[in-house]
């Protein structure tokens, strides 16, 4: 059974940092690109960062370039999102996903709130 369990979110002041984790199971993790997405209230889900199956190629949405870093541990079947210099507009629920699996396996996500 495919499962994604996100953790590490919380309330942080502007300029602060958080590290999100996503434990994946139920599929061959090492074969799939992994993405982090976020969805803010009233907005559509947005692709934030992506990492190839080997952990070499990465891509980011322009709004987080230079501030966020995606990484993965193919032994632990876990993908991470290190977030620095956080801004109020980063406030959202963050999800990880393997797009190659198709729809239907979204986890609950982890809430990130950036506020003073």
Average pLDDT taken over every residue: 97
Number of helices: 0
- How much beta, percentage-wise? over 45%
Alpha-carbon distance between the termini? 40 Å
Oligomer: single chain
Main beta-sheet strand count, sense and barrel state = 6 strands, mixed
The shape is: globular
Q: Strand tally, please?
A: 10
Order of helices and strands: EEEEEEEEEE
Q: Give the low-pLDDT segments.
A: none
Helical fraction: under 10%
Our Rg estimate from Cα atoms comes to 13 Å
- Report strand order across the widest sheet: 2-10-9-4-5-6
Helix/strand-derived category reads mainly beta
Could you name the key traits of this structure?
116 residues; four-stranded antiparallel β-sheet; 0% helix; 47% strand; globular
Would you kindly provide a written description of the structure presented here, covering whatever features stand out?
The chain has a 6-stranded mixed sheet with strand order 2-10-9-4-5-6, with no helix packed on it. Strands 1-3-8-7 form a 4-stranded antiparallel sheet, with no helix packed on it. The chain has strands at residues 3-7, 10-12, 18-25, 34-39, 46-51, 58-60, 68-73, 78-83, 92-97, 110-114. The protein contains no helices and 10 strands. A hairpin with a 6-residue loop joins strand 4 (34-39) and strand 5 (46-51). With 116 residues, the chain is an all-beta fold. The chain is globular and about 40 Å long.
């Amino acid at each position: 059974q495919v499962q994604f369990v996100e953790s590490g979110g919380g309330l942080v002041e502007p300029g602060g940092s958080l590290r999100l984790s996503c434990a994946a199971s139920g599929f061959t993790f090492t074969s799939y690109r992994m993405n982090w997405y976020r969805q803010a209230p009233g907005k559509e889900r947005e692709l934030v960062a992506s990492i190839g199956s080997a952990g070499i190629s990465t891509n980011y949405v322009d709004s987080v370039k230079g501030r966020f870093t995606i990484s993965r541990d193919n032994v632990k079947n876990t993908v991470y999102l290190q977030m620095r210099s956080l801004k109020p507009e980063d406030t959202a629920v963050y999800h990880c996903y393997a797009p190659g699996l198709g729809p239907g396996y979204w986890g609950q996500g982890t809430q990130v709130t950036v506020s003073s």
